[in-house]
Amino acid sequence: MQKEQGDEKFIKFFSLKRILIPVLIGIAITFFMVVKDFSKPVFTKVESGKGDYVWTDLDEDGTPSSDEYTLAVDGQKGDYIQQTQPQLWRSIIHNWKGSATFAMLMAVLMVFLRDFFYMYRIRLLTDKELSWKRAFQVIMLWEFSSALTPSVVGGSAVALFIVSKEGIAPGRSTSIVLITALLDELFYILMVPIVFLLIGHNQLFIKDFNFTLFGKVFGMQSIFIIGFAFICLLTMIILWGVFIKPVKFKRLLIRICSIKFLRRWRKKAAKMGDDVIITSRQLRNKPFSFWAKAYGSTLISWTARFGVVNFLLMAFNPVNNHLLVYGRQLVMWVILLISPTPGGSGIAEFAFPIFLKEFIPAGTASALAMLWRLLTYYPYIIVGAIILPIWLRQVFKKTANPKV
Which of 150, 200, 204, 377 has the lowest CB atom count within 10 Å? Predict the structure, then answer.
């Protein structure tokens, strides 16, 4: 009975309403940004002395804004021309080069690399019990569920159901989801200090970005520190529970869920504790090569995820500091992590031009934000919606006709 209820909950999770909400939010925000861009003149830099406008950095932030351009006077020539949005895009298309096409193709390749190494990792964690085809279905549905849930919630619960439906034992399914989360968090925890050392503190954070929570205003640096501390805490809990004291971890879960208003989750806490103990036994004796492959695939996958933006920006503008673009994405990821909208929809489109404004050509911010999401977000909704009914028929057929 409980199994049937779980199946029904899973199917209801992927309702049309739940799919449409993030899509409509993203489209609405993008439409607003595009309309806003079209209402403003675009100032484009040209060869020195061949423009009609000059730029004066009035606020000394190193980034041009529309109110800082003035007509050149006294017969002088400036370095900028004024264009409308249609003129700007006609100019971009007219001057499109083979190098720009190459950069766009590389951005698409990064998307495929990201998913390929996710598939490789899930096959590794399941000891290759999943074929490449099934690994593809699992990863696409996992990404699909993540796209339909707020980033702060994540799609782990749905992922656990998906993996278990593939015939993986419940305890092992929990271990796979836990270790996947652990590897992702370890990538972030190890990469952030490296980027900080190579780039420096001042360049990573945007000063004019604020976030209001419970009536208090937090700057970007404060939000990042809180988010990073949460990730570190979560990672330490998983490490302690899985590799150090799994039995004590189970006892702690039960004790927490013995609090009056949490008692209804006590049985689930005990079950999760048992799964963690099983996970610990399964993973403690894994060889170094196993962990090297698991972390290596995680590193490549996340680097490819961020590399999409680097190549996308290269298609429209030379990028002179790829590491800074990479580092800004690390910071932006924490902001998206606390997004209340499904898959960060709306927040991601809004944050993209704020974090990367000095790398984005004037007048193209909203279009590039939309293109970024078209490459890294919406495909998972489309592919997931196509795969879901096929996958459901496969797994329920498998359940109805178990192996003898």
Answer: 200
The number of C-alpha atoms within 13 Å of 328 and in the hemisphere containing its C-beta is: 23
- Cα–Cα distance for residue pair 17/367, rounded to 1 Å: 26
pTM equals 0.85
Cβ 175 vs Cβ 282: under 8 Å: yes
**What tens digit of pLDDT does each residue of 279-311 get?**
788 788 889 999 999 999 999 999 999 999 999
Q: Which of 316, 336, 322 is nearest to 377 (CA)?
A: 336
How many angstroms separate the CA atoms of 306 and 250, rounded?
Answer: 36
Q: What is the rounded CA–CA span in Å between residue 69 and residue 52? A: 10
- How many Cα atoms sit within 13 Å of 297 on the Cβ side? 18
- Provide DSSP, 83-101: E-HHHHHHHHHHT--HHHH
Task: Look at residues 117, 270, 131, 129 and name the one whose alpha carbon lies nearest to residue 180.
Answer: 117
What is the C-alpha separation between 172 and 266, in angstroms, rounded?
21
Q: What's the gap between Cα 47 and its chain centre?
A: 38
3-state percent helix, strand, coil for the chain, nearest multiple of 5: 70, 5, 20
Helix (H, G, I), strand (E, B) or coil at 53: strand
C-alpha dihedral sign at 158, 162, 165, 171: negative
Other C-beta atoms closer than 10 Å to the C-beta of 340 total 11
Backbone angles phi, psi at 213, to 5 degrees: -140, 125
